[in-house]
């Protein structure tokens, strides 16, 4: 174990941390904790992977950044031990997202500081107000990108600050979920094609944070695509559109079938 200065803050037991590998030895690796002023901690070889390890550098290399879990903290002696093998895939993913949010949020606030000519105390005050509602500064910018600046109305921010946040939020690519289905529609009437076109047009467009698009595949098939900020909203909009189409087509003595297709993540703006 590695001794760390008593005057420096230590991480908590079980905490997931980002580290930079400092030195690899035959019995483990010395790393620095990125979020704790680069304090040094230790990753023992037994906590790198299960089974026998022929070459430690297959798992960790000098200067590499990685995600580890705190498995022992001795406040009295200021010692910290870490584990790689105890970190789950979900924990690693969540930590990386957290770090990226922190970095992006800090970058946005630096831009606003320069743009508005604010000092550090003014920026800190803004961050404290944002923290009343959001876990991460970046989350406020993302919320504005998705729903507009009205989401900040309760935070008592100056108009110039809200305007600056809105301007920076436009740089964010909002991920959206896309759900699709293949429709088979027939209406055996003289004006059947017009009926189908009118029914499909009635469900197209943007509504309730979702967007519905319908494309012609080839008689009698059409593809309906719904894009929304998350799967729940997209799925609800798709089901409502399909039900409306089905009811309208059957009222006109037509036939209606649909087949769900694979959903996917996109960066399409609604």
Automatic annotation (TrEMBL):
Q: What UniProt keywords apply to this chain's record, in alphabetical order?
A: Initiation factor, Protein biosynthesis, RNA-binding
Q: Which residue ranges traverse the bilayer?
A: none
Q: Which Gene3D superfamilies match?
A: EIF_2_alpha (3.30.70.1130), Nucleic acid-binding proteins (2.40.50.140), Translation initiation factor 2, subunit 1, domain 2 (1.10.150.190)
**A single MF term (Gene Ontology):** translation initiation factor activity
Report the Pfam families cross-referenced here: EIF_2_alpha, S1
Domain S1 motif: start-end pairs: 14-85
Q: Which InterPro entries match?
A: NA-bd_OB-fold, S1_domain, S1_IF2_alpha, TIF2_asu_C, TIF2_asu_middle_sf, TIF_2_asu
Q: Which PROSITE patterns match?
A: S1
Its assembly, as annotated, is:
Heterotrimer composed of an alpha, a beta and a gamma chain.
Family to which the UniProt record says this protein belongs? Belongs to the eIF-2-alpha family.
UniProt function note: eIF-2 functions in the early steps of protein synthesis by forming a ternary complex with GTP and initiator tRNA.
Protein name per Swiss-Prot or TrEMBL: Translation initiation factor 2 subunit alpha
**What is the species of this protein?**
Candidatus Nitrosocosmicus franklandianus
What lineage is on file? Archaea, Nitrososphaerota, Nitrososphaeria, Nitrososphaerales, Nitrososphaeraceae
């Amino acid at each position: 174990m590695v001794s760390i200065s008593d005057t420096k803050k230590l991480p908590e037991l079980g905490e997931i941390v980002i580290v930079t590998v400092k030195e690899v030895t035959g019995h483990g690796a010395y790393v620095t904790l990125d979020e704790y002023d680069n304090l040094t901690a230790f990753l023992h070889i037994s906590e790198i992977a299960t089974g026998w390890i022929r070459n430690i550098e297959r798992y960790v290399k000098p200067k590499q950044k990685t995600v580890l879990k705190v498995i022992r903290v001795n406040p009295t002696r200021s010692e910290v031990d870490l584990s790689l093998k105890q970190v789950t895939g979900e924990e690693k993913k969540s930590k990386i997202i957290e770090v990226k949010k922190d970095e992006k949020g800090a970058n946005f606030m630096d831009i606003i500081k320069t743009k508005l000519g604010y000092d550090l105390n003014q920026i800190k005050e803004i961050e404290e107000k944002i923290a009343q509602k959001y876990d991460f500064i970046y989350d406020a910018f993302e919320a504005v990108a998705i729903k507009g600046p009205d989401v900040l109305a309760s935070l008592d921010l100056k108009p110039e600050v809200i305007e600056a946040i809105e301007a920076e939020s436009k740089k964010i690519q909002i991920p959206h979920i896309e759900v699709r289905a293949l429709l088979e529609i027939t209406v055996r009437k003289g004006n059947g094609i017009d009926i189908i076109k009118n029914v499909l047009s009635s469900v197209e467009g943007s509504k309730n944070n979702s967007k519905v698009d319908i494309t012609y595949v080839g008689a009698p098939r059409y593809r309906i695509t719904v894009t929304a900020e998350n799967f729940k909203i997209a799925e609800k909009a798709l089901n409502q559109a399909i039900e409306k189409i089905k009811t309208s087509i059957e009222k006109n003595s037509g036939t209606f079938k649909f087949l769900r297709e694979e959903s996917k993540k996109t960066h399409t703006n609604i």
